[in-house]
């Protein structure tokens, strides 16, 4: 399972309550579309840290890194290269 599949699956199951892949585009903004609130973002952070074994610093908890499937996937790839 790819990183994208893991992130998509988590969002679909826990926030959109569906397994219909068409309900979420990889570039959809979680905040702008009301998919996640600030609590949801914290849950995403805990999921990423547990699932991918990375530590997210306070200054990395920004929409540029965490506000869509594509942004999270790119962020995880950058973190793994550190």
Automatic annotation (TrEMBL):
InterPro entries: ACP-like_sf (IPR036736), PP-bd_ACP (IPR009081). Gene3D superfamilies: ACP-like. SUPFAM superfamilies: ACP-like (SSF47336). Pfam families: PP-binding. It comes from the Bacteria. Residues 2-80 form the Carrier domain. This is Carrier domain-containing protein.
């Amino acid at each position: 399972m790819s990183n994208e599949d893991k992130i998509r699956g988590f969002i679909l199951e826990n926030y959109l309550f569906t397994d219909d892949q068409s309900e979420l585009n990889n570039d959809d903004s979680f905040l702008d579309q009301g998919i996640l609130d600030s609590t949801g973002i914290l849950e995403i952070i805990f999921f990423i840290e547990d699932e991918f074994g990375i530590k997210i610093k306070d200054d990395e908890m920004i929409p540029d890194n965490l506000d869509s499937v594509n942004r999270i996937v790119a962020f995880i790839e950058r973190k793994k290269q550190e």
